Amino acid sequence: MTRVFNFSSGPAVLPESVLRQAAEEMLDWHGSGMSVMEMSHRGPQFMAILDEAQSLFRELLGVPDDYRTLFLQGGAIGEMAIVPMNLLGAKTSIDFVNTGTWSSKAMSEAGRYARINEVASSAATAFDRIPAFETWRLDPDAAYVHICSNETIGGVEYHWTPDTGDVPLVADVSSNILSAPLDVTKFGLLYGGAQKNVGPAGLTLVVVRDDLLGRALPITPCAFDFAQQSDNGSMLNTPPTYAIYIAGLVFRWLKAQGGLVAIEALNLRKAGLLYDTIDASGGFYVNPVAVADRSLMNVPFRLPDARLDAPFLAEAEALGMVQLKGHRSVGGMRASIYNAMPVEGVQRLVDHMLDFARRHG
Ligand SMILES: *Cc1c(COP(=O)(O)O)cnc(C)c1O
Prior knowledge:
By secondary structure, the chain is of the alpha/beta class. The protein has nine helices and 13 strands.
């Protein structure tokens, strides 16, 4: 068996120890005689798995007592419609900061339920930065302010949290959740798909402040009504049981790494290796993002000539590194280096970049 270094943007790399444990427990979880996939979601065995995953998630992220954590389905794109249905209440508009593909997608989804107010945008500079907070034209009557904390495709990340006063701040945290400590109290709601930094696709995480519950529009499906899901412990419908089990193992792994402070230090080291290589390449490799807003999770970079992309990727693959091709909307390369990407994987990529630039520069 040969494992590759997988730089996919998602579904993405998982810790090898987690996969090994899941394999060992596949046919018989803890003497139950069955796989987690085969368990009743209301039985004591799965309830123990769910409770542990919930409490580890809350502990790792430091979720305060007045916030609910929901394990749902529908993905981040689902939440882009579900969140407005739940939070609009009697309000009619939502403020959006547009930093790229995913915040644009959130705007178009929410636009079917509310008036969209683009309060700031970096479109004029090809989404290469987070617009300075002083330029945001916030509306005090908005239902909430929406940001995407890490633009997975553009590689642009907030390294600060805006203060939106009494208007709740909502963030799509799909691709940087649990990558570094986060002050949850500054947000009204966080949502994200699991398949970038948490576990398998199919699980959607929502963290919501208590006072925002109970205002869902009458058209909201019960499975997507946060208050009803909260009252039912995320079990109003069958939750994605196997994905929750794997996420729980990832949470255990993350805690064993030392939690979010330790993982952030590691993520800074990994991203630093790549950005230092790009910046020291004399223009051979280019990352277009403003230095202060560069993502620790997704590192896009271009080569001097698009005709070099294919040989760069083919040689990377021969060296055991896959999924480095950039998103079709951006081109070039993208290295996604989530929590579970080992430093050795990033070091191997850096070695390849240095060697390739020497031969083609
Ligand atoms: C991947 C991603 C999405 C899309 O998630 P789905 O699970 O496909 O709905 C949305 N937002 C961000 C920031 C992402 O990285």
